[in-house]
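In the current project phase, the collection of sequences with tokenised folds has grown. One resulting record follows, to show the layout:
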Amino acid sequence: MNGTLVDENLGLFVAVARQLSFVEAAKRLGMSTSTVSRRIALLEETLGTRLLQRTSRRVGLTLEGTRLLERAGPLLDQLGAVLDQSVDREEEPAGRLRVTAPVTSGGQRIAPLLFSFAARHPRVAVELTLTNAVVDLVEEGFDLAFRVGPIRDAELVARRLWSIESVFAASPRFVQDTLKGQTQLTREALAKVPAVMAMPRGVWRLRRRDGGVEEVRPMEVRVAVNDTQVAVAAALAGLGVVSAARELVAAHGKKLVPLTVKGRTPEPRELFAVYPSRKQLSTRARRALDWVMEHGAPESPRRA
């Protein structure tokens, strides 16, 4: 297989790995599912390793696939950014930049980046809407959105920004009274403890050491809320175990005790920048996206 074909198949692998779906990746790429599957199989044969775990119900990353995605994904994103910068790169951005982002990651990460971008470009005015709802970007008139993946809308262009690494945590009193001082749990024990949920579908997704992903559905959900900071507040009140971004847990110091699950870690969530595929990005939106991608992951490029 020649090098060009390997490069093309690598792009297909990254698309499938980010969507964890051959069907969704094929739709996004305008190809048939069988073609995508066949070409990724060729890539695996060329590399001599299995990159994806395929079952009739889901697609998961192997350890080798996870490592390849972590290395190749950012390089492909950078290439896309370089190509974008080749158009109107000298034009000074101006006008109102309308952006939507999740409440927690938007407030903690995206907002400061957009503010620094606006400070650099005085002709740009920023209008930031923080919401966990999935809004129609065209109908609502947004230039750009930031969303936690996977992105399953084939009408959107998605660019991965960084991974949000999560940890389990609970209040010290909860650890002592309910967990009897134990800070390492088994998968089975995790399912039985009172839970504070800030995750979609009421499940925790765990990544095994072999790269596979599995779901744990808590038997007792004490609090369910669509905002992570509020969920953390419930955990601080001793209502249960919460899964939240590592930096958010760390910000509370000794008021929260990190918990581990034997042989497993919370599956990282991927943060994407998205915009409609049929709508060309304005200069201000493209420059803002470039700024976020360049300055957005200060100390831990792949962690929140």
The first strand starts at residue 52 and ends at 54. Residues 98 and 140 are 10 Å apart (CA to CA).
